[in-house]
Inverse folding.
């Protein structure tokens, strides 16, 4: 006999209250990054000398801008989930752990916003 | 077993690489002079070595990630298969990184 409440049984969550979200989010972003990462490295092969004009022209192509934004955002999300696990595994002082997780979160959001902003600036300017 | 920690190390390495990727876009958005400062550093010997490391990290982490996804479905989890796929992942990463840089240069 289960001691779970009927609501608890329906929600299917344990004491952490988030169930399989972290695990699943990591897998979904991993599959997305297989495609986006391969596209990115393949695109780099098309750039000859990585000059300013060449890069501006590449990022300015709308589809490239969209895929680059998706790449940066998915990377930031996947990276945040990964770094979170690393911090939780290796940082044992409660205070340091909370501060590290907080800084990691801020840094990842910053990086994602910065990438999309830069891509927009280049796209609108070109 | 060694690959497990290498998966984490390449992952953390790419988290730092993500900052450089975004710096590349930010400097390009900032203008030609800022962009030139960025390429001057990344084009140096240290910069190039870092880039080779990051592309290896991508190929390794991606291939080993697929290995993890297969394990999630319960496949290839016995010791013999795991040992064999470990070598396969390493060989794939080294081969792909060589081909990538050969094609890029």
């Amino acid at each position: 006999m289960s001691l779970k409440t009927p609501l608890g049984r329906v929600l299917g969550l344990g004491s952490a209250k988030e169930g399989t979200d972290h695990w699943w989010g990591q897998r979904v972003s991993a599959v997305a990054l297989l495609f986006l990462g391969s596209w990115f490295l393949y695109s780099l092969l098309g750039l000859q000398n990585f000059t300013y004009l060449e890069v501006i022209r590449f990022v300015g192509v709308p589809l490239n801008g969209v895929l680059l934004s998706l790449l940066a955002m998915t990377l930031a999300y996947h990276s945040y989930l990964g770094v979170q696990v690393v911090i939780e595994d290796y940082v044992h002082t409660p205070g340091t752990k909370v501060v590290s997780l907080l800084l990691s979160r801020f840094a990842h959001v910053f990086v994602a916003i910065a990438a999309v902003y830069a891509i927009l600036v280049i796209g609108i300017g070109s | 077993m060694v690959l497990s920690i290498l998966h984490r190390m390449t992952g953390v390495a790419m988290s730092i690489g993500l900052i450089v990727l975004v710096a590349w876009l930010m400097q390009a958005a900032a203008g030609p002079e800022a962009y030139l400062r960025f390429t001057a550093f990344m084009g140096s010997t240290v910069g190039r070595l870092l880039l080779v490391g990051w592309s290896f990290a991508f190929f390794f982490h991606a291939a080993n990630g697929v290995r993890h996804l297969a394990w999630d479905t319960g496949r290839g989890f016995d010791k013999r298969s795991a040992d064999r796929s470990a070598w396969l992942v390493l060989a794939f990463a080294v081969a792909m990184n060589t081909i990538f840089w050969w094609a890029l240069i």
Residues 11-125 of chain A form a domain with the 3 helical TM bundles of succinate and fumarate reductases fold (CATH 1.20.1300.10).
